[in-house]
């Protein structure tokens, strides 16, 4: 049935980067709002609990001689002027941050989709969207997280923020570049090894190389003594979940908009 | 024909030529990365603007999205 004349795509049923970008931004908006909801419900309790510990002073026991106090405005330091109130940080600020991040990610996602579609196996547009979201989450969120886990307030030495930020972004870049290389390798090997084994080679190759690199990079043990383990766990799971909701929201919304756009064009 | 109908979702839509994607990718990519930078790192390890307003505004999002904050 899909091969009959009415189902054949008319000349207008092509994808343009412009429409992909629009769908990507919309998907990013929705993903950002969903992530905001998830973070409000499941992330904020652990952020608040960590800030309470920080304010109680327990969070700074890792500081030996450097001034670890009052490096940032949680309202922990009465002497420090709070530019944005905690109440707004945990609501409006979280929302603005999540939506701005979602929009940026959604735009980049649509561009990644534009490159991936039709070039990574014979996946349908919707399946490509989910594949890009899944692999993107793996390479941009999960692997960097496993290398440099997210930390709640009160965890982390302000003296190493430069190193940690550089290494975290570096790990995202390395992981993403390795993913692209793995996909390209799998595609190149597919004619010789077949789809199954070329995918296995690409996947295992990515896992091995990224693990070796992650182990070679410096690590940071900056959880202060007395910081509750359950709170660290809760925060980190909430952080992974927030990103998962964001990426899933973008992937699924983008797929739905894509399908709607394509079929509407075909009907018209 | 019945066999072909087993995968109704496969739309034969052509891939977009790389030449068409590139200008959008460069421009929108840069804009998007700036947005991500402001949420992820501004007034942390690096700072375009002075002060802590941006850092504090996106503070919770930065923590929960997994970026090093302080």
From TrEMBL, chain A:
Protein name: Uncharacterized membrane protein, predicted cobalt tansporter CbtA
UniProt-annotated stretches for the region Disordered: 59-82
Biased composition regions of type Basic and acidic residues, renumbered to the chain: 61-77
Pfam entry (one): CbtA
Top-level division of the source organism's lineage: Bacteria
Keyword flag tRNA-binding: no
Spans through the membrane: 20-42, 94-117, 129-147, 167-189, 196-217, 237-258
InterPro entries, per the entry: CbtA_put (IPR012666)
Species assigned in the record: Actinokineospora terrae
Entry keyword Lipid metabolism: no
Secretion signal span: none
Keywords (A to Z) from UniProt: Membrane, Transmembrane, Transmembrane helix
TrEMBL record, chain B:
Keywords, comma-separated and alphabetical: Membrane, Transmembrane, Transmembrane helix
InterPro entries: CbtB_put
Superkingdom per UniProt: Bacteria
Keyword match Transmembrane: yes
Residue spans crossing the bilayer: 21-39
Stated name of the protein: Probable cobalt transporter subunit (CbtB)
């Amino acid at each position: 049935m899909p091969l009959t004349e009415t189902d054949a795509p008319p000349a207008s049923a092509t994808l343009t980067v412009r429409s992909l970008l629009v769908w990507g931004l919309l998907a990013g908006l929705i993903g950002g709002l969903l992530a905001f909801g998830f973070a409000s419900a499941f992330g904020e309790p652990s952020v608040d609990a960590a800030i309470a510990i920080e304010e109680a002073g327990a969070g700074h026991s890792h500081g030996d001689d450097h001034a670890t106090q009052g490096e940032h405005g949680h309202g922990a330091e009465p002497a420090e002027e709070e530019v944005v109130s905690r109440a707004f940080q945990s609501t409006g600020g979280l929302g603005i941050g999540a939506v701005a991040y979602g929009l940026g990610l959604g735009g980049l996602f649509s561009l990644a989709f534009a490159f991936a579609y039709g070039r990574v196996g014979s996946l349908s547009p919707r399946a490509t969207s989910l594949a890009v979201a899944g692999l993107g989450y793996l390479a941009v969120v999960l692997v960097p997280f496993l290398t440099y886990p997210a930390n709640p307030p009160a965890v982390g030495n302000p003296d190493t923020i430069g190193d940690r930020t550089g290494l975290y972004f570096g790990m995202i870049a390395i992981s993403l570049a390795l993913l692209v290389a793995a996909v390209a390798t799998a595609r190149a090997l597919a004619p010789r090894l077949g789809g199954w084994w070329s995918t296995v080679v690409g996947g295992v190759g990515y896992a091995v190389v990224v693990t070796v690199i992650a182990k070679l990079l410096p690590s940071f043990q900056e959880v202060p003594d007395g910081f509750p383990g359950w709170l660290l766990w809760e925060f980190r799971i909430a952080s992974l979940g927030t990103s998962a909701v964001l990426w899933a929201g973008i992937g699924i919304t983008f797929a739905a908009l894509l399908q709607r756009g394509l079929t509407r064009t075909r009907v018209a | 024909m019945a066999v072909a109908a087993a995968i109704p979702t496969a739309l034969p839509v052509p891939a977009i030529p790389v030449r068409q994607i590139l200008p959008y990718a460069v421009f929108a990519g840069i804009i998007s990365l700036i947005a991500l930078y402001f949420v992820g790192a501004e007034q942390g390890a690096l700072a375009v603007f002075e002060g802590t307003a941006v850092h504090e505004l996106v503070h919770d999002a930065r923590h929960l999205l997994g970026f090093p904050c302080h």
